[in-house]
Amino acid sequence: MFKNLKSSAQSFHTSKNWAVVGIIIGIVVWFLGFEVVGGEWFAMWQSKMWNGLNSAERIVSFLVLVLILLHLKEE
Fold first, then answer.
1. pLDDT 10s digits, 7-44
2. SS3 content of the chain, % helix, strand, coil (to 5)
3. Rounded to two decimals, what is the model's pTM?
4. Which of 1, 7, 42, 53 is 20 to 30 A from 30, comparing alpha carbons?
5. Cα three-residue angle 23-28-34, rounded to 5 degrees
6. CA atoms in the 13 A half-sphere facing the CB of 75
7. 50: how many CB neighbours lie within 10 A of its CB?
């Protein structure tokens, strides 16, 4: 994306594909890995020592917001 920052709008928007793939992978890892598997399967929400559900929820919310902002087109 940074390489195409000063080029045309079309080439900049096509360069967003790898960023979208990376953000979707991050959402899958943090949501499925921590919130679903860690939270429900391993009952992480019951742990008094370490409960990563709140952190995972914040990270997934941030990634979804970035994904939404990344899809906005500026001509």
1. 888 888 888 898 999 999 999 999 998 888 888 878 88
2. 70, 0, 30
3. 0.80
4. 1
5. 120
6. 0
7. 8
CB atoms within 10 A of CB 39: 19
CA distances from 1 to 8, 15, 43, 66 (A): 12, 5, 39, 14
Quickly tell me which residue has 């709140």 as its tokens.
54
| 52 closest CA partner among 73, 23, 31 | 31
**DSSP state, 72?**
-
Residue 21, class by beta-carbon neighbours within 10 Å (0-12 exposed, 13-18 middle, 19+ buried)? exposed
